[in-house]
Amino acid sequence: MEAIWLYQFRLIVIGDSTVGKSCLIRRFTEGRFAQVSDPTVGVDFFSRLVEIEPGKRIKLQIWDTAGQERFRSITRAYYRNSVGGLLLFDITNRRSFQNVHEWLEETKVHVQPYQIVFVLVGHKCDLDTQRQVTRHEAEKLAAAYGMKYIETSARDAINVEKAFTDLTRDIYELVKRGEITIQEGWEGVKSGFVPNVVHSSEEVVKSERRCLC
Amino acid sequence: MSDKDDSETPVTTEVTPILGDGNCEPAKNSKSFDQSTEPGSKSGPVASTRKRPEARCSNDPKAAEVLPVQASQAAGKEPVSKEVPQTGWGYWGSWGKSLLSSASATVATVGQGISNVIEKAETSLGIPSPSEISTQVQYASEVRDAGRNNILCVSGPFGIFSTISTAVQSTGKSVISGGLDALEFIGKKTMDVIAEGDPGYKKTKGLMNRNSTLSQVLREAKKKEELWTSSEVTMETDKKTHYGLLFDEFQGLSHLEALEMLSRESEIKVKSILNSLSGQELETLKLELEQLKEAFSLAEFCEEEEEEKKGDEDFTKEITDLFSSLRISSRKVTGVKARNTAYEWIGTSLTKPLAEKEEGEKYLEVESTEQVNKNSIEDIHAFAIRSLAELTACSIELFHKTAALVLHGQKQEVTAVERSRTLSQVTVVLCKELSVLSKEFTTCLTTAGVKENADVLNPLITAVFLEASNSASYIQDAFQLLLPMLEISLIESKTESPQNLEGQRRFDL
C-alpha cells in the first residue's frame, strides 16, 4: 500500500549552515535524532508519505540543501522545481535569523516563474534558555512575508511532524483550488498513481462492508 | 570538448538489453533469458521493464579488423579527402592532421602496390591468416564505394573509427612514400584502442550517444513498474522485487538527476570557456582535456576472474583508500555499509539451512524446514534485487557527492587527471563488487533451491544477473557524467593559480 499517493510534492529545506536542516528532516523521515551530523554536501534527498486526510496520502520528496556558502550555486538550481519550502533559522543564533531576508530574496530570484510556499521554522526550540530570537519578532517577520511560523526541535521531536504536514496541507489546498497546477517540465507537483483496482481506503472499506453483507 | 557534439549526432541507438556488457558474468546466462519472460515467473516483468539503450554497431571484431584495410585501400587508390569529419576523440583527428601537414606534398608512388602495404601492415599487427587478408582486400576493393559508406556507418556511434580511418586516409600518400612505419603505428594504435576492449569505449560513448538521459530511462522503468504493480494489485510482496522502485526508494533516481544536472551545467561551462580561448592557449588546454578523457575510458572489467572473492575488508579498504586519495571524506561512502549488510545477510542465509537441519533433527519439524526453504528462495531473490538497487543507488550518490565536492570542494590537492584515474578505479571496484555480489546471491539461490523446479529457480537467478549487469551499466554511465566536472576542475586549477598548481603537481608526483 506504501506506493499509493495522490500527489508528490517536492519540498526544499533551506537556511544557514548548522541551523539543523538535516537533523529536522531525519527526525521527520527516519524518526531519529543524530547527535553528530556531517555538513551536507550539495544536496541530499529524503522522502516520506504524509496522510493529510484519511486515505489521502501525499508523497513528500524533500531536498535537503547544504547551508554552506560554497555550495550555494548548486542549491540555487533546485529552487525552481520545488513547490514548498521550509526556511530554517536557529533560535539560539541571531545571525541565522537575520539572514532569513537574504534567503527569501535569493529564492525569489531563482524560483521564477514559479512560486514556493514557505514556512518559517525557528529550530532548536528545546534550547530555550539560549534563545536569541523571540517568538514575537519571528512571527512578525513571517507575517510580513506571508508565511506561517512554527518552532521545532529535532532533538525533542517537537512540532516536527506538524511543520511538514501543515505545509503539505496548505499546498494541497492550493492545488485543490487550482492555484497550483501540475505542469509539464516542472517537478514541484506531480500526480501520483492510483491503482485502478483499489482506489482509496474508502473503497476498501466499502468492499469489506459488501463482504459482510 | 567542442567536437563531442559531432559525435553525438550520427547516432543510431537501439534498445537492447546489455548482456555481458561491462560485466562478463551475465553473458553466461543469456541463454536462459527467454525463459525469464514467461508470464508466470516473477522475474518476467523485472526483466522486461527496463532495457537500457545502448549504442549499436561494431561489437563485431571483424568490422574493426577490416576497417584499416578498407581505409588504407581507399587511401591508396583515391585522392586524399581533406574534409576531416572531426568526431569524438579529437586527439586522433588532430594527430592525423599534424602528420598530414608534416608530410611534404610528395605525390604518392604506388610502387610497392597497395596490397603489399596492407600485407605488411597486417603482419605487423599480428593478424594471423594472410589468405584471410587477401580475401578481405579483395572484398574491400570490390565494395570499395560501398565500403566507404560502411566506414561511415560503423564509425557513427564510435567517432574513433572514422577519425582513425580519416587519419589513415589523409596520411596515405606520405605513408607509402615515406615508409611503412607510420602506417604500422596507426594500425597498432588502432588495434590497441580496439583491444582496449568493449568496456572502455563502449562505456565512454555509451551514455553520450543516447538520446535520452540515464535518469529518464530509469524513471520510465520505474513508472512502468509502478503501473504494473498497481494493475496487478499485488502490492508489498511484488514491490520487493522491482528494481526500479527500490532504486528510487534509495534515492538513486534523485541523485542521478542531480548528477545529470551538474554534469549538464558543467558541460555548458566548459564549452563556453573553450570558445573564449584561442591559439596556443586553446591547444594546450585541449591537449590536457584529452588526457583527462583518456582517464575516463575504463579499465577492463573481465580480468577479475582469477581474483575470486576477496576478504570482506578489502572492498571497504579499497574504496576508502581510493577516496582518501581523492581527498574526499570517506564518511560519505555509504555504499560500503550497504554492501556489508548484504554480505552479512548472505552469510546468515547460507548458514541458515544447515542450522535449520540440525535443529530439525532435534525437534523433528520437517515440514517447517521445508517451509523455510520454500520461502527463502523468494526471499533471497527479493533481498538480492534490493541489495543491488541499494548498492547502485549508493554508488550514484557517491558520484553525485564527488561531483559537488570536485566543483565546490576545498582547494585542490590532487590534479584532475589523478582524480579521474582514481574515480575510474572506483567504478571498476564497484562493478566488480556487483559482479561478486550477484554471484554470491545466485550461489545462495542455487543452494537454497536444490529441490526447486528449474522453471522456478532459473528466472530468479537470471533476474539477479540481469539486474547486476544493469546496475554495473548505470554506475559506469554515472561515472561518465563526472567528466565535465573534472574538466572544470582542471580548467579552474589552471586559470586560478598557475604557480600553486605547479607546486602541487610536483608535490603529488
From TrEMBL, chain B:
Pfam families recorded: DUF719
Top-level taxonomic group: Eukaryota
Listed Polar residues bias regions: 29-40
Keyword Phosphoprotein: yes
InterPro entries on file: DUF719 (IPR007998)
Record's keyword terms, sorted: Phosphoprotein
Residue segments, region Disordered: 1-85
Bias type Basic and acidic residues, positions: 51-63
UniProt record similarity statement: Belongs to the FAM114 family.
UniProt name for this protein: Family with sequence similarity 114 member A2
Organism: Loxodonta africana
Phylogenetic classification of the source organism: Eukaryota, Metazoa, Chordata, Craniata, Vertebrata
